[in-house]
Specification:
Layout: E1 2-8, H1 12-22, E2 27-34, H2 41-54, E3 64-66, H3 80-83, H4 105-115, E4 121-124, H5 129-137, H6 141-144, E5 147-151, H7 166-170, H8 172-179, E6 185-188, H9 190-193, E7 197-198, H10 200-207, H11 212-232, E8 237-238, H12 240-249, E9 254-259, E10 261-263, E11 274-276, E12 288-294, H13 296-307
Parallel strand pairs: 1-2, 1-4, 2-3, 4-5, 5-6, 6-12
Antiparallel strand pairs: 7-8, 9-12, 10-11
Helix pairs in contact: 1-11, 1-12, 4-5, 5-8, 10-11
This protein binds beta-D-ribofuranose and calcium ion.
Calcium ion binds near residues 9, 37 and 125.
Length: about 300
């Protein structure tokens, strides 16, 4: 199986994404690193322990770490209005599996990626602060990682501002460091994730799985659907982060195009925008494989099948 590290800010869609990873035999999770984002770091670390508990024996012995508690330069930005105050809006959740490991997430990233050069895929589903710090502390790291698969950015409009997607806006400087790093990079942005909607029918299928992972995921996505209905007029929440995990498992579920991507760092209306050169007008070399289309029904089938194998 493909060794992966999961880095994110759980957050309800991060939680579903990580359950998908633990349930998938194609990958072996080496560790999980939490970063500030949807909820303050302290809460995100606790939530990480809860997700590991939900994954049952699939997560046995998988270490988890606390990472950066704030963006590199800008002030902290959370998204509790989307994910609820706790980040995991569900009842009957287990306690965290065990406390996090001692030591910083960034040290874990550096040591794990260096231990297996070219082997480990990093699936990042939050602001890129941990990844950027690791790349700065260990400048060889972009050459050691097999690939960074990031849920973030957009080829088109944003969701936190008209121009910027949340993960990009929550630490644009970190995203800039990662996009300029030379690391092999796949961007799974809003332009594809907004096509993967957890409709009422899909939630019903999740519930009918009859296991705890399905029930908890359905409950959280139900809460999320309320927010999406109100904000975007959609019939359910978008499965952003689970699509990034699916992209690591099954890249063929998406259509990819190599292109230059730059992150807007100047303040103002476009702060955090991922400027994607779809038509090659800059003449620059591509620095990312950008997802431009997705087979949403096939993705949802995969999610359903895999979550069904958990406790
Ligand atoms: C991203 O922002 C967060 O709120 C979600 O967890 C996802 O990673 C979508 O813009
Ligand atoms: Ca996230």
């Amino acid at each position: 199986p493909l060794p992966v590290i999961l880095d994110g800010d759980p957050g309800l869609d991060d939680a579903v994404a990580w359950l998908l990873a633990f349930a998938s035999p194609e990958v072996q999770v080496q560790g999980v690193t939490a970063v500030h984002g949807n909820v303050p770091l302290r809460r995100g670390v606790r939530n990480t322990g809860v997700v590991l508990a939900l994954a049952g024996e699939r997560a046995q012995g998988v270490p988890y770490f606390a990472g950066a508690d704030r963006p590199l330069l800008r002030e902290e930005l959370t998204a509790t209005q989307i994910h609820g105050e706790t980040g995991l809006p569900a009842e009957g959740l287990p306690e965290p599996v065990r406390p996090p490991e001692a030591g910083h997430a960034v040290d874990f990233l550096i040591r794990t990626l260096r231990a297996s050069p070219g082997q480990v895929t990093l699936v990042a589903s939050g602001p890129l602060t941990n990844v950027a710090l690791a790349f700065r502390l260990a400048p060889d790291l972009p050459q050691q990682v097999r690939e960074v698969v990031w849920m973030g950015g957009s080829t088109g409009p944003g969701n936190r501002t008209p121009a910027a997607e949340f993960n990009a806006l929550a630490d644009p400087h970190a995203a800039d460091i990662v996009f300029r790093s030379g690391a092999p990079l796949r961007m799974v942005g809003l332009n594809v994730t907004m096509q993967c909607i957890a409709t009422p029918e899909r939630l019903e299928q999740l519930r009918s799985l009859g296991n705890r992972a399905g029930a908890v995921s359905a409950q959280m996505l139900e809460f999320y659907a309320g927010v999406y209905r109100e904000r975007y007029g959609l019939s359910g929440g978008a499965l952003h982060d689970p699509l990034a995990v699916a992209a690591a498992l099954r890249p063929e579920l998406l259509t990819w195009r190599p292109m230059p991507v730059a992150v807007e760092l100047n303040g103002g209306l476009n702060l955090g925008r991922t400027v994607c050169d779809l038509y090659g007008v800059t003449g620059q070399a591509p620095n990312a494989q950008v997802a431009v289309d997705v087979d949403a029904p096939a993705f949802f089938d995969l999610l359903l099948e895999r979550l069904g194998t958990l406790p």
